Amino acid sequence: MSQPSTFFITTAIDYPNSRPHIGTAFEKIGADVQARFRRMEGADTYFLMGNDENTIKVSKRARELGVEPQPYVDDMASQFKEVWRALDISFDDFIQTSEPRHHAGCQRFIQAVFDAGDIDKRPYKGLYCEGCEEFKTAKEAVSPDGRELKTIEEAEAAGACCPNHPKTPLRIVEEENYFFKLSSFQDRLLAHYEAHPEFIQPESRRNEVVNLVKAGLQDVSISRKGFSWGIKVPFDEEQTIYVWFDALLNYITALGYGSADDAKFRRYWPADVHVIGKDITRFHCALWPAMLMSAGLPLPKSVFAHGFVYRKDEGSGVLQKMSKSIGNIVEPMDLVRRFNSEAFRYYFMSQCPFGGDGEFSFERFAETYNTGLANSLGNLYSRTITMPVKYFGGVLEGSSAIDPTAWRAGLDLPALVEELRSLVGSFQYAGALQTIWLQVIDAANRYIEATRPFALIKTDPAATKIALVNLAEALRVVSILIKPFLPRTAETFYAAFNFADAQPFDRVCFADAASRPPGPDLRVTAALVDGKVAPLFPKIDLKAEPSS
RNA sequence: UGCGGCGUGGAGCAGCGGUUAGCUCGCCAGGCUCAUAACCUGGAGGUCGCAGGUUCGAUUCCUGCCGCCGCAACCA
User: Fold this and answer.
1) What EC number(s) does this enzyme carry (predicted)?
2) Are A48 and A10 contacting, i.e. CB atoms less than 8 angstroms apart?
């Protein structure tokens, strides 16, 4: 037997200056579905997440709260992980960029780039706010006459200030910083995009980046002077590595790059896919590969930029970006507590195309839940289990000899499974789920109407049994196909009958959906109350909800 | 201003050169009762933003216009 292939998948690391919202969760769920799918496919999968802690904002936020940065970020990291676990995000590692392993790897890396001659020191010119003691961009500057400012020169001339210190005009200050010679990588980057069309996904993002790089790249400042929080530049103790150069490196420092124990790095790098938000595409598709080229490391195989989730206001119907100032942020735990993690995952994966933008409203959430989960999926589960219990005491003797393919007559299941593998493997989750619901779940519901086992039992118990065995098989198939998306529901489905006697649930792969493995006769193993299962997804009635 | 995206029945989305433009929800009418008043069948509802062009043929390709929305270097 050959070595299983590896699959290394990462998400963007988050700033821990506030708790994650549902948009952040969207990314993690999308990555998690992929990780779970690849594990099912037999790949040795490694799923990395983390927090981006070496930022000025984080240290300032900690100071506001009167705590040291380290305990602050540690506390935030545990809060983040708690949310991710509640959503069943199956990460294998969670890196905090304040950890020693990250610091060490970063220093090793920046040294390598320095030694390669791609870093030099030169003056950095920026808008400095004496109140904040930090540089601002022209965009952040507020002009006294309310004008939009495009350049830092314009901002200084207008006497603009930062929003926090309206009485202290911003001035252009120069300081010596280290710069990464990004501009010299333009040709190599373009050649790489050309040779690897799959490097940036989806297609629309790829075009964006190609245009951007064609337009020309500027060298980027990668260090700052005079900060105590962060990673020191190894060849200049007075300087601290600045945000992106540090953040991107988490993908390799988490694997032990530059440390004595770099077995994981050797095994999993290069990454198969970095899952990120569309806003940071350029850093992952231009800066990051250039950094790796400079250090002589292989480039990630692909970057997938997902869309954003916008908040649709129930009253006005207005679609807005979620933000603290508007006060329209929805926290994942709200939804998990009020409903459950499966409903959360289902909503985002089925309603928001991963590569594009999606929207969220409680109204749509309830609608999606009620129709997709309660009526369609949950109800199928109930009726599939009740009948064998009612008519055969839960034991379907002789079922192993029955061919369970009648329920899917007219459906080419093997072809469908192949199609689904392709859809899920390419992040087309909404399409995959719609296909499962339309082709498989609806087929099972229709099969009940066609065979009418509840009537058939009065005249032909043998035929009834055949119908019920078919239904059980449909449940098994559904269980396998939804496993990456709804892991808990999938497991509940699989445990409803003694399917595990034929094949343990954790060994099931997508291809197994198309053919039933030989096994003993079927019997119902679900927990029953008065001969019935409790509804898996009780209907949501928003009007009856106390708040929202 | 530059770059990019979007505009398909009441709502949300597919489709993207070629038989009667699909799907989910909603609506209307039947059927059924195993099931979470669930499920199944049928129906009404669209000149595929507007105007040109390419083509034997365009919702699908090109151009222009209108409307909405992103991005423009550190915002998931």
Assistant:
1) 6.1.1.10
2) yes
Q: Which residue type is seen at A425?
A: G
Token digits for A403?
């061919």
Q: List the A546 CA – B29 C1' distance (angstroms).
A: 36
Write down all domains in chain A, each with its CATH number in brackets. Answer: 6-105+243-343 (3.40.50.620), 118-239 (2.170.220.10), 362-544 (1.10.730.10)
Q: How far is the CA of A539 from the C1' of B36 (A)?
A: 7
Report pTM. 0.93
Residues of chain A under the 50 pLDDT cut? 1, 547-548
Q: Return d(Cα A504, Cα A496) in angstroms, integer.
A: 13
* C-alpha gyration radius of chain A: 27
CA A217 → C1' B16, Å?
35
User: Which are the contacts of A117, defined by CB distance < 8 A and separation ≥ 6?
Assistant: none
Q: In which element (H, E) is residue A523 found? A: strand A522-523
Our measurement of CA A32 to C1' B2, in angstroms, reads 37
Q: pLDDT tens for residues A169-228?
A: 777 778 888 999 998 998 899 889 888 888 888 877 887 788 788 877 888 888 888 778
Query: Which nucleotide lies nearest residue A139, CA to C1'?
Result: B72
CA–CA dist A176, A328 (Å, integer): 41
Residue whose CA lies closest to nucleotide B40 C1': A449
CA–CA gap between residue A23 and residue A348 (Å, rounded): 9
Residue A303 gets the label, from left (phi > 0), alpha (psi -120 to 50) or beta, of beta
Mark the nucleotides of strand B covered by protein, meaning any atom under 7 Å from a CB: 3-5, 12-14, 23-26, 31-36, 38-41, 70-76
CA distance A160 to A149: 9
